[in-house]
């Protein structure tokens, strides 16, 4: 029997809160209980809860306002746009190295299902990578893609290309851009400000409360989304040039 993909603990907690929003326990427009109250209600530690709350804020499920607290949003955040290039190519002219942290198959989260055409019982590829510039961690990359069947429906060469990209230690976006050929790739993105959190901070060797710029991106071929990604750039990371035209 095939191994059932497992969700990470922070994802399980994230989904529990999303389910509570969907079921009306915390309806849109309401303010979540304080951290101690919410942690007690969910039976989890405050550090674990804080990690899930960071993800909920990043994904547009909640908004944090000084003096108000964490408010549940009416719907998913709107998306913008940016020039589509692999992150490794945007982080300056220094020595750039991608470190593979996780390469796995997992169940899709609520965020992934908002952006990728996968069912709740389906599977997605999940890659987590650290991008180092001149030997220092500059970005944490989290990427989800359609699994083989969905990729092959767009282009039969894409599943093999991702396998090769995994072996070569690339990010998913780098792999897709390199393998796409004449495929009309496009990217929709949002840019928000948050903090690293404990788990991400440990990866990039920064304190959990380090300010971070978070880019959330969805990459599509025509109207078919293939990839959803998060790029967490802590303060002090190299600047990224985004060229826009009209």
Automatic annotation (TrEMBL):
The HTH gntR-type domain covers which part of the protein?
7-75
Q: Which UniProt keywords apply?
A: DNA-binding, Transcription, Transcription regulation
The record's annotation in CDD domains points to:
WHTH_GntR (cd07377)
Q: Say which domain of life the source belongs to.
A: Bacteria
Task: Tell me the PROSITE patterns matching this sequence.
Answer: HTH_GNTR
Q: Which Pfam families match?
A: GntR (PF00392)
Q: Does the keyword DNA-binding apply?
A: yes
What InterPro entries does the database record attribute to this sequence?
Bact_HTH_transcr_reg, Chorismate_lyase_/UTRA_dom_sf, Tscrpt_reg_HTH_GntR, WH-like_DNA-bd_sf, WH_DNA-bd_sf
Q: Which residues form the signal peptide?
A: none
In Swiss-Prot or TrEMBL terms, this protein is called GntR family transcriptional regulator
**From which source organism is this entry?**
Saccharopolyspora rosea
């Amino acid at each position: 029997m095939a191994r059932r993909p497992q969700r990470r603990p922070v994802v399980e907690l994230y989904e529990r809160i999303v389910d509570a929003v969907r079921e009306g326990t915390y309806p849109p427009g309401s303010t979540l209980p304080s951290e101690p109250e919410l942690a007690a209600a969910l039976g989890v530690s405050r550090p674990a809860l804080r990690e899930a709350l960071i993800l909920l804020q990043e994904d547009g499920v909640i908004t944090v306002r000084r003096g108000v607290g964490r408010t549940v949003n009416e719907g998913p955040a709107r998306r913008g746009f940016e020039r589509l290039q692999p992150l490794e190519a945007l982080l300056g002219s220094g020595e750039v190295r991608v470190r593979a942290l996780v390469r796995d198959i997992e169940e899709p989260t609520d965020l992934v299902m908002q952006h990728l055409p996968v069912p709740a019982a389906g599977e997605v590829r999940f890659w987590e990578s650290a991008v180092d510039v001149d030997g220092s961690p500059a970005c944490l990359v989290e990427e989800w893609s359609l699994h083989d069947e969905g990729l092959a429906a767009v282009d039969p060469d894409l599943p093999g290309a991702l396998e090769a990209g995994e072996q070569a230690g690339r990010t998913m976006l780098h792999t897709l851009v390199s393998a796409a050929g004449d495929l009309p790739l496009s990217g929709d993105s949002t840019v928000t400000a948050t903090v690293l959190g404990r788990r991400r901070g440990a990866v990039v060797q920064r304190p959990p409360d380090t300010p971070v710029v978070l880019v959330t991106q969805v990459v599509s071929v025509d109207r078919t989304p293939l990839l959803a990604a998060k790029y967490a750039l802590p303060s002090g990371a190299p600047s990224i040039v985004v060229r826009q035209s009209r």
